[in-house]
Amino acid sequence: MNIEVVKSKIHKVSVTEANLQYVGSITIDEDLMDAANIIENEKVQVVNVNNGERIETYVIKGDRGSGMLCLNGPAARRVAVGDVVIIIAYASMDFEEAKKFKPSLVFPDTETNLLVG
After folding, report:
1. Exposed e or buried b for every residue in 88-98, given b needs 16+ CB within 10 A?
2. What are the pLDDT digits (tens) for 18-76?
3. Closest residue by Cα to residue 4 from 96, 87, 105, 94
4. The CATH number of 2-95 is which of 1.10.10.10, 2.40.40.20, 2.40.10.10, 3.40.50.1010?
5. Which residue among 36, 47, 84, 92 is least packed, with the fewest CB closer than 10 Å?
C-alpha cells in the first residue's frame, strides 16, 4: 500500500509578487527550493495563511538569493503581495517506508524570505 506524505515544506514565506499575465505557476527563490528539496516543475500546494486559500500549481526557479516568491497566472488572484504562505510538496511511498521518512522542512525569515542561520 502506498500513501501520500509531506516530502517538503517551506513554512511561512511572504508573497513578493503576483503576476496575473504569466502562463501559470509559482516562482520560488532557488535557494529555498534547494533547501526544501523541491525541483522545477514539481507540483506543490500553496496555503495562504492570510485568507485560507489553498491552491495547487507547479514550481519554476526564481533568482537565487533574491527572496522571490511570485504567484503567476490565475493563482495571482488568490494572494496579495505581502501575504504569508506555506508551500508543501507531497510524495507517494510505501507505508513502511513512510514511517521512516523525514521530510525537508524550511523555516526562512518571513520578512525577507531568506534562509536563516
Report:
1. bbbbebeeeee
2. 999 998 899 999 999 999 999 999 999 999 999 999 999 999 999 999 999 999 999 99
3. 94
4. 2.40.40.20
5. 92
The predicted model scores a pTM of 0.96
Q: Running DSSP on this structure, what letter comes out for residue 34?
A: H
65: cell is 538569493
Helix, strand, coil distribution of the chain in percent, nearest 5: 15, 45, 40
DSSP string, 12-44: EEE--EEETTSSSEEEEEHHHHHHHT--TT-EE
Which of these, 99, 103, 74, lies nearest to 86 by C-alpha position?
A: 103
Catalytic residues: 25, 58
DSSP designation for 74: G
Note whether 69 and 14 are within 8 A (CB).
yes
Tell me the three cell numbers of residue 7. Answer: 516530502
Backbone angles phi, psi at 36, to 5 degrees: -95, 0
